Amino acid sequence: MLIDVGQYLFRVDSAPPIVKNNLKLMYGDAITNSSTAPADFTISLKHDSLLRKFLKPQVTFYLGSNSPFKPLPASQSYPVMEWGMNWCIAATDFNRLIVHAAVLVKNNKAIVFPATPGSGKSTLSAYFALSGWKLYSDEMAIIDLDTLQVKPLFRPVCLKNESISLVKQWFPQSIFTGTAKDTQKGDVAHLKINSFAEYKTFSPVNIVAIVFPKYQKDAKTEPYKINKIAGFQKLAANSFNYNILGSTAFNTIQRLVERTQQVEINYNDLSDVDDLLTSEFTL
Amino acid sequence: MNKQKIYSDIESLVFHNEIPTVELKQWENIIHILREVNLLAACYYRLEKEDNLNLLPFFALKHMKSAAIYSSRQSEQVIFESKLLQKILDAESISSLFLKGASYTLRKSKNSKGRVYSDIDLLVAKNDISKAEKALEKHAWCTKKVSEYDNKYYREWSHEIPPMFNIHRGTVLDLHHNILLPISGREVNVELLTKNCQVIDDKYTVLSHAATILHSIVHLIINEDVSNGYRDILDITTLIKENDSPEFWQEITSLSSKLGFNNELYLALSLSQKYASLTIPDNVWLSFEEQKDNSKLNFLLNYVYYFALQPHSPAIQTLRHKVAISIAYILGHLQKMPLKILIPHLLTKSFFSLRDQIFGKHHFDK
Q1: CB B223 within 8 A of CB B238
Q2: Residue at B37 is within a domain
């Protein structure tokens, strides 16, 4: 089974049937059985031991013969697979700057939402992506070191805890995996946004703003511009490979911060955020 | 594609910088195998030096380049850590010497380009080792928690203490007082080994080139874990080519005779010849009369090490490789420990391994 996630091609060597079914549900027409292109990663999800297959079963994620994480309960199989795929990208791709962030695009302009605590990044991703924005990524912004453009990834949105039922309530037609309970991030479910055919129409775009949303109950939706140094620090802190890229990352983030606006937004209603960003950045 | 063809493509690329003429799709196996044996970055720099990167398909180039960026960051880190370590030990007047990977980087050996490290290896005198451990502890280096059994193994039988790591940066440090386990009965005369040691940048002490290579050879052959063997052979061949001179050959053969590693040197040179077509001077070959007639040694060469050191990847492994790896595992242990200690040691290890197979590897983790 080969999965084209846009910038990377994964070969799934082996995985439990439930994981394969979820992969088919999430990636659909991005899955093929053969390809003329070489795969970037060969991955698998395996049961740990014979006894463990039946008693408190656990699974381990592998890239080739290496397992980056400790085994986790089999009930979390699908999230483990998705997190493993994230790890493959973050741990091996140093050709671009990779920021832990959601990327949403409207009118060919990208807004990057770094994953600061309490930002509600994934809920925002899901809401925006199902309200007319293009989802370039829920988890990682892939930024070209020369052009500073952000490239699209074809991955589902990873929703946690209360957001799962919220999104299901807002968008009853949406396509979800089952919910994995009690993972290290709480309850987790994945949400499919586009078909691969739709995704194929996305191309790299310029970033216009770095937005740090902050969910606050009873807050009036208001933007605050933050200074460039704070913007730089927050971006650097959320980059997966800042330490490895060293001065290249420093220069890239500096150029990015100079070229874009950095805004903090307090909100309690996502549709207000949508309106605000659309008018502020003429999207 | 058949396994032998994949392997021969890998060997030509790694040791001869020859870019395989294969369909794009076949690069998948090649890149994945190189990633597993940590040689992606080394291949990048070797091809770059010959100005041949442009002959690679984009798929291979992007993966090699990415690994090269990672390895160059690691080598900066090694230099940074070495500076701090040297300062800590200097302050306590403890003489130290950098071994293996760190020494390649500090003296900018050709094999250091693209090399990746799991740790930094430092040699100190045996009676300085606890002083060094305490000095390092004051500077945020902690001893890794190992099982009680492993701790006993390190402290009583080994030539090093359990690995230390820096609590801020996670860098791992192996502190040695010898290059072989005392229990092996082949403990090395450190004075002889370090006799011609050199000082780099007025700061860092490293072994002479000949002693560095001999150490790398001993570490490769007298070891139960041969999973980094392919990388080690590349180190050895690259270092020999870089230092090839009559004086060098004189020093390495004389040192290996004095330290009792002629068999290991013979094996490693023969392997270098097999993989990398390394040229070895006639007079050096002539000095191995005894080894050439030793059928056990030649069996090890042709049927054990030649296969066991090849990348451990299902894409190229045959039954022959698996058998060779198992023999190398037992031999590595046998060479390190006398049987009366080895048998209980292996029983203990296999008990834990069996236990982990049944309950899962991390079931008993604290």
Answers
A1: no
A2: yes
Expressed as residue numbers, the domain containing B269 is: 3-356
| Residue from the list A48, A95, A248 with its beta carbon closest to the beta carbon of B66 | A95
A65/B36 touch (CB, cutoff 8 Å), yes or no: yes
Tell whether A92 lies on the interface with B, counting CB pairs under 8 A: yes
Residue B333's pLDDT is what?
81
pLDDT recorded at residue B188: 84
Inside any domain, residue B365: no
Contact B35 A95 (CB under 8 A): no
Cβ neighbours of A66 in B, within 8 Å = 36
Of A41, A51, A248, the CB nearest to B359: A51
Q: What is the CATH number of the domain that holds B334?
A: 3.30.460.40
Nearest 5°: the CA angle A225, A229, A235 is 85
Question: B361: distance to nearest CA of chain A, Å?
Answer: 8
| Residue A33 at interface with chain B, using a CB cutoff of 8 Å | no
**B146 part of a folded domain:** yes
Name chain B contacts of A92, Cβ cutoff 8 Å.
35, 63, 66-67
Average pLDDT of the residues of chain B: 90
Residues of A with CB below 8 A from B69's CB? 94-95, 244-245, 248
Residues of chain A with CATH 3.40.50: 97-280
Which chain B residues are closer than 8 Å to A246 by Cβ?
73, 76
Averaged pLDDT in 10-residue chunks for chain A of 283 residues: 96 95 96 93 86 75 92 92 96 97 96 85 94 95 98 96 94 95 89 96 96 87 91 95 95 97 91 91 78
Low-confidence ranges of chain B (pLDDT < 50): 366
- pTM for this prediction: 0.91
Tens digit of each residue's pLDDT (9 = 90 or more) over B337-366 = 666 666 666 667 666 666 666 555 655 554
In a domain, residue B361? The reply is no
CA of A124 vs chain B CAs: smallest distance (Å): 32
Assign domain A97-280 to a CATH class.
alpha beta
Question: Considering only alpha carbons, which residue of chain A is nearest residue B22?
Answer: A38
Number of domains in chain B: 1
**A72 to chain B: nearest residue by CA?**
B362
pLDDT value of position B366:
47
ipTM for this prediction: 0.93
